[in-house]
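Notes, Module 5: Reading structure tokens.

Key idea: the token line is not a picture. It is a compressed description, and you learn to read it the same way you learned to read a sequence, by spotting repeated patterns. We will look at two proteins. The first is printed below with its tokens.
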Amino acid sequence: MRRGHNVLKTIVQVVAFAALWAGLSQAAPGGPPAPGRRPRPVGPPPLLRALDKDGDGKLSTSEIAEASASLKQLDRNGDGSLSREELLGRRRPVKAAGRPPRGGPSGMRPVTGVVHEADPLPKDEMERKILEVLADMDRTQRRGMMNVPREDGRLLRLLAEAIGAKRVVEIGTSNGYSGLWICLALQRTGGKLITHEIDERRASLARKNFARAGVSDLVTIVMGDAHKTITKLKGPIDMVFIDADKRGYADYLKKLLPFVRPGGLIVAHNMHRPPPYPDFIKAVTTDPTLETLFFHMEAAGIGVTLKKR
């Protein structure tokens, strides 16, 4: 009996705390909402709704007994704990430098990444070989290479293969990690990767990684300052992936966009962390010939821009 009393007491305290928290967060500071602005909905917090199955505003004995299972419904990321956003049923906002006020011209809205992904499965021995090299690079080469997270690499492969990319330009080779994800697509589409790198040590490591993955014939590494070397490129380009000096993104876009085919993509890394430069955000969100979405992937963030047909 004592145990049941303690459980009930704890749940009541948690519910009361969440209700107070929600009430404080929903109240508009300084009085009523501004004219023309929709008031936030007022109602029981998600935690109380999750526990109160019959919606009568009370917790019955059976609802208390099922509390553990009910609380798991709020744990969206499955980490065994409840964040403030999960308690209140909200998504964590993502901020970016230079982002205009909500509703401004850029319309920048982060999209949260997928939670329930499974490990990539090789279709054949070619894919298995590339995936094994990628797994080894994850274990042994990440330090100091500033590689994209694995999920971001998988997105690159998905995008390149989905558009049937024949010619992909990458700015920032590093040790070839993101390039190998792109090659997973190109060995299906019959395409080629032209990747630009300024550091010879990293480029040398990338060559070795491309060779042991068996994709050297798909890749051309161009050495030098990419701001200069990309001026020698011609179209058409199916997809551009930018993951180099953050201040230079707008310049890369300006120089490469004319050669991207209609229906092609410009994919930019680090659109959340570190914060992107405002000139690039403005360029991809205010041009009527472009359509851009920002994905919050593993905190780094990716921007995907379509050059409209």
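Here is the second protein, with the sequence above and the tokens below, as before.
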Amino acid sequence: MSSTPPLVAQAPQPRFGPLARLTGALFSPGETFADIGRTPSWLAALLLLTITGLAVNIVLAQRVNWYEVTRSQIEKNKFAAAQFERMTDEQREQAYQSAAGRGKIWRYIRGAVGSLLLIVIMGGVYLGAFKLAGAGGALNFKTARAIVSHAYLPLGLREVIGIPILLLKDPSAIDPENFVASNVAALLPGDAPLWQIALGASVDIFGIWCLVLLVIGFSAFNPKKIPLGKAAGVVLGVFIFFVLLGTGIAWIFS
């Protein structure tokens, strides 16, 4: 007697390679994110975002006048400003110099690990948000992480655009948090309170692009359980939560 070996289910194969996914996520997101949902991967997107993030933060660390940036930030923070008023001129100067040095070092750290932390944290946040909304279904952390990493590629494009701007711009005129002037905060006066800057920074061209890709990406993973309307509701809900949180914290310190 002969026996027929059992059929082994073939794992789905990606239709697009890593490089095609990077460009496809930006310019043909529907088809690309459907492929990412079937065979999730994130290393190529993480590598690209890390390289661009590290590059722009190295330039920022070298080009920005951190002494003046730190001084401006302290003056806008009512708690820090009150503390500095009690210092002598010598103590205040030493504190400014120390804070400026920490701000410069922080840029190197942010460039090295910022993209990794952002993707991992927000992948978990969106996974939890969709599960709470009853739209998660088969969505897992691996898939959510892959969708988030590719949806955040516009941030890498912003950093690529920002590098020549930073190299050509007068160091005294560089805003390290808005070096491309791509959001509403760039239109505010220099003495605007922290909460207005935080709120204005949330309305960003590249950030809005990321939100659109997140909606398309999560919906493309499972269009039946996560239609575009539901995906938009969850993504915008998470966005509004973080905007209110950031603006509220900035208002406390303004």
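Summary for the second protein:
- The mean pLDDT is 91.
- The two ends are 83 Å apart (CA to CA).
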